[in-house]
Design goal:
Layout: H1 2-9, E1 21-23, E2 26-30, E3 37-42, E4 45-48
The structure holds zinc ion.
Length: 62
């Protein structure tokens, strides 16, 4: 779905309600289009999880 992928690019992900899970009491899920991990930060409020070391600026230099 090209339109769906475009929505993802703008941060409007589509939660896959068939694959909800639970971690540390938080409800978690994934976007059905791009598989971005999402979490319920408040009732009915789903946000993409912030991943540590996402690659912007911080890197391990050997
Ligand atoms: Zn997405």
């Amino acid at each position: 779905m090209k339109l769906a992928a475009l929505a993802c690019a703008f941060g409007k992900h589509s939660l896959d309600t068939d694959k909800l899970g639970r971690i540390h009491g938080l409800r978690v899920g994934r976007c059905r289009h791009c598989a971005a991990p999402m979490e319920e930060t408040a009732p009915q409020v789903w946000e993409v999880q912030r991943v540590p070391d996402a690659g912007l600026g911080r890197r391990y230099n050997l």
